Amino acid sequence: MRERLRDLGFDLEDAPTIDEPTMSVIEAFQRSRGLPITGEVDTTTWSRLVEAGWHLGARLLYAARPFLRGDDVAELQVRLARLGFNPGRIDGIFGAQTEIALIDFQQNRGLEPSGTLSRATLDELWRMTARADTSRLVTDARDEAGFDPVHSGPVVVAGSGPLARRVAARLRETMTVHHLSDAPIDDVAEFANQNAAAVVLSFALLEEVPGVHLHYWASYRSHSRRGERLATELATELSRYCGLPRVEVTGMALPILRETKMTTIQLEYAEKSDEVIERLATAIVNVITALFHK
């Protein structure tokens, strides 16, 4: 772990133990990657640390199961997007849309359209993007313009707390809702992606959250403007309607936000009275219902 952090440019002392300075470096890495700042190397932190060690050209990139993940994939997505080929969200995951964008690039440059980042493809990609380093990403332009259509599919609600149950029940009165109360994050994401969900609302009941924390997808490479807008609208409505002491909006790269391809919001809150839960649910339902009637 220390060697990986050092390779990424983080300054570490030579002590082999997880001392306070090392914890500070772990926190700095977590902050840079949009993860919860705990100073502990949990499963998610370790996987992102491994991903950060990959550099474009160090390995073949292609559609695999499970998906290849890493900073090299994110760099590939950025370079394709600078040239106008749409790899989807810049998330460091080599999925179907990234493969299609890579094939489009290969066809455009007269290369074998294999969908694999071969040496010939990489050389051409480097040559072309050397001229386009300052150009905008097509993914950002499409997001800002609202060009990608919002799915008309169901709403997926994840979480087993009282707020998740209340929101799912209220939304179900006017739209199709799937409430996955105890499903693991990977299962929620897979279900939402396979069913082309319009929105995913993930609820987490945590201790010591004074108000409500709202998170949307954001990484060191890009962020979801649609997610940011929805989180901001929710925060405005919650502050106005519920009179909470604090409503925070933060872009993060939490697993549920990264794995889902549609607009996803993670809402964290501490235990509340039934009256406050009802007000929270009403405010959330108002915003989501208005979103589907725009």
Structural summary, described in words:
Helices cover 46% and strands 12% of the residues. The protein is an alpha/beta fold. The chain folds into 3 domains: 51 residues, no CATH class; 75 residues, Orthogonal Bundle (Muramoyl-pentapeptide Carboxypeptidase, domain 1); 138 residues, Zn-dependent exopeptidases (Aminopeptidase, 3-Layer(aba) Sandwich). Strands 2-1-3-6-4-5 form a 6-stranded mixed beta sheet. Helix 10 links the parallel strand 4 and strand 5. Helix 8 packs across helix 12 and helix 10 packs across helix 12. The chain is globular. The mean pLDDT is 90.
Key words describing this protein structure:
single chain; 294 residues; alpha/beta; Muramoyl-pentapeptide Carboxypeptidase, domain 1; Aminopeptidase; 3 domains; 6-stranded mixed β-sheet; 12 helices; 6 strands
Poorly predicted regions:
none
* Total beta strands: 6
The ordered H/E elements are: HHHHHHHEHEHEEHEHEH
Number of domains: 3
Shape: globular
Structural class category: alpha/beta
Mean pLDDT: 90
* Beta-strand percent range: 5-15%
Distance between the termini: 48 Å
The CATH architecture name of the largest domain reads 3-Layer(aba) Sandwich
Helix fraction by DSSP (H/I, runs of at least 4): 40-55%
CATH superfamily of the largest domain: Zn-dependent exopeptidases
| Alpha-carbon Rg, integer | 21 Å
Per DSSP, the total helix count is 12
The CATH topology assignment of the largest domain is: Aminopeptidase
- Return the CATH class of the largest domain: Alpha Beta
Strand order of the largest sheet: 2-1-3-6-4-5
Sheet with the most strands? 6 strands, mixed
